[in-house]
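Quick question, first post here. What does this chain look like in 3D?
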Amino acid sequence: MGCRLEIIGKTNTGRTRKNNEDSFVIEPDLGFMIVADGMGGHASGEVASRLASTLCAQQLKRSLQTGHVPIFYHVPNNPSLDPRTHILGDCVKFANSAVYEASQKQSENKNMGTTLVAALFLDDKLAIANVGDSRLYLIRGDDLVQCTVDHSFVQEQIDKGLIDPDEAEQSDMKHLLTRCIGNQEDVEVDMKEIELKPSDFILLCSDGLTKMLKDKEIMATFQELKDPDGIASSLIDKANNAGGKDNITVLVAHVAEDHLSLSSWTDRLKKLFQHKAERK
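> Answer (accepted):
Ran it through. Tokens below.
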């Protein structure tokens, strides 16, 4: 029996920010989703996150057909990963190049950058690529597992045993990133794959959620509610009720059994481009 993803995405400015510098893209037919959290002066954060998320999604759709991403620096080859996971990683690098070039050409956007976490559904597993501290979680039963590692100063301190996670939550430097999209000409992209089972939930989010809610509070929402739309709305409400100190973006995907067909990844890709041709 095949599986399909039900995906809902929502974003909110929060209670203290004037602008929303988060962006997201979902492509349900392809099983693709991405969250980007921008940074920079004036409106640069909005520019960076929108540029990165949009171009990554557009290039992924092209590259899944051609098998090639037009970049100079490719992700390292890992024989244990699906070729489509490498394509996803290269598309993140493509987005990095675009944001970096834009920041060099426009003085008002000189220091702009963005985090980025992206996922691609591969029928029985999920390909993940990320840069920065936007996160992806897997929720299975009563377990919530963070599947990405933050590229941040405090995470490095945790890894070195200098502080524990509770101390990291209280640190004044937890917003400092060690890696982001658009800061340099090339960027290292973390890639991995996780196995999926029917009834699993997937959460992609900006740190506007994780700054406000602890993992146990996020898990409680998934235990209370079972539909992606309700979960996404509730998480945003809870983050705002806790202070809403940053923009909040939440993508919730549910792995559902497909009782109608063994809808393969190839079928989904053909359907996506068929819909695109019909809209022209």
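The longest strand covers residues 2-12.
The helical segments are 44-66, 83-105, 153-159, 165-170, 207-210, 215-224, 228-241, 265-279.
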